[in-house]
Amino acid sequence: MKDWWKNSVVYQIYPRSFKDSNGDGFGDLQGIIEKLPYLQNLGIDVIWLSPVFDSPQDDNGYDISDYRKIYAGFGSNEDMDELIGKAHEHGIKIILDLVVNHTSDEHAWFVESRKSKDSKYSDYYIWKDPKADGSEPNNWGSSFCGSAWEYDEERGQYYLHFYSRKQPDLNWENETVRKEIYDLMKFWMDKGADGWRMDVIASISKDQSFPDYPKTDGRKYYTGKYHSNGPRLHEFIHEMNREVLSKYDCMTVGEAPGSTPEVARLFTDPEREELNMIFTFEHMNIDRIPGSVNRKWELKPFDLRDLKRVMSEWQNKLYNKGWNALYFENHDQPRVISRWGNDTTYREECAKAYATVLHGMQGTPYVYQGEEIGMTNVQFPLEEYEDIEVRNAYQDLVVKNKTISEDDFRKAVWNKSRDNARVPMQWDDSENAGFTTGKPWFRLSDRYQEINVKKALEKNDSVFYYYKDLICLRHEEELLTEGDYQLLLPEDEKIFAYLRTSDKEQWIVVANLSEDTVSTEGLAKYVSDKEDIKIANYKDRTGIKADLRPYEAFMMRIR
Ligand code: NOJ
């Protein structure tokens, strides 16, 4: 099928935490192979594999030192060939993570680049002289706190790194760099990879005047717009499409922080020949205070109206003009039911309700490992966190600048840290949740005996089977792929409801995202012809009339 990714559902695997096959406590490719039948049973079409390439693991593999070699902790290149082959046998495609805004500082290119100002590799990265007083070239800050510049004694210059100092940014202005990247993409696509998730792809083109941020509040370093959507971004992506993507039947999704729906159209309008879809951050930022010195760690209370406004805007503005990537969770985000819902009394209802909202929309839905069984956030003592983002933020904000108290920071980490999604997958209730027979690389959630795959498979109304039904609907119901979108009750603080309409039929998608019982009065007028329930998380739901119970959700054909 042309555009097969439009009615596909993607499942993201974070390999180090998915399944360990050899008892070293670290997930691996053979572990994934073992679980292919499980994924086939769930019904997903595509696996997105977070990076599995050689890496010092400073940022858990998003710091690659060899793009053509599998990291030994995950297995070998032969294991990767086997995984691609076996996934295909199970009817599952595989997309890989293309991390080419930066490499590891241990990549051979960088090792050579830092040696001298006039070798083949000198301009592979972004090098700048210190200012006259020896300070950084400008006031850009890293996403992981502190300066985005690191002074290199060997070369006598600063290099740019928007992430950790072990992740130097590549210089996309250099044509040879771009060619190297296109070659490595072909290397994996010729081995059968079915496409790419592109890490912070919106950041590859930098403003070549490297301007300072205006100093607004006495801060030393600033982050934001110079990270994203630079002047040559779309030219580069179009070139990548022409040189590589157009030659394969593949799917592409770009990670695009800072993008608006207008930018998403530039990326995804098929006529522009760039990418199939991008991940927006706009809905993920609704519980964040814009411009806060404490960044994502300063919590803003969740307001459902914001979520509806942002998601609806993306639905409407991309309709017939581009394509949406739909997600609530990934390896950088906490669990949605803990973040914006209820992960105790109504854990299963809530997981199904958020899933209904997401999978009812137009776009390609993404399920992050464990989301399909309603896994929850964790609350560990601060010193047990593994993520470099948490560790750096603690040093910078709590210890050094004292802009946030330790208590508030801990609360924010419990709510938002990336490690919430990175604890090992919960397969069963045995020791270490069946993730490993050894010592796990990271602590498990305390709730694995209550929440695990084995239990979910044994219970016929579990979150797992609800996802399975949703995925089935995505495959069978053209309306979900093609229909347009209309938000209902935009000001309602508890109900998320919308219509999907094609020339053949109309559906209503309804979710009560609260713990209260609420009336459906405001919705009844949209339902007159038909009341044909397509999916519901309370089995006795038959029509629109009855009140919505806590986290009740359904999709119903109404015309
Ligand atoms: C986005 C990735 O999703 C995240 O995990 C990583 O830390 C940064 N990009 C840097 O590669």
Description:
The chain has 559 residues and is α/β, with parallel strands linked by helices. Helix content is 27%, strand content 14%. It has an 8-stranded parallel β-sheet with strand order 11-10-9-5-2-1-13-12, with helices on one face. Strands 14-15-16-18-17 form a 5-stranded antiparallel β-sheet. Helix 7 (261-268) runs parallel beside helix 8 (304-318). The protein is globular and about 75 Å long. The model has no long low-confidence stretch (mean pLDDT 97). The structure holds 1-deoxynojirimycin. 1-deoxynojirimycin is lined by residues 59, 62, 99, 163, 199-200, 255, 331-332.
Short structural description:
27% of the residues lie in helices and 14% in strands. The chain has 16 helices and 18 strands.
Features:
Malt_amylase-like_C, globular, Glyco_hydro_b, alpha/beta, Alpha,alpha-phosphotrehalase, binds 1-deoxynojirimycin, 559 residues, 16 helices, five-stranded antiparallel β-sheet, GH
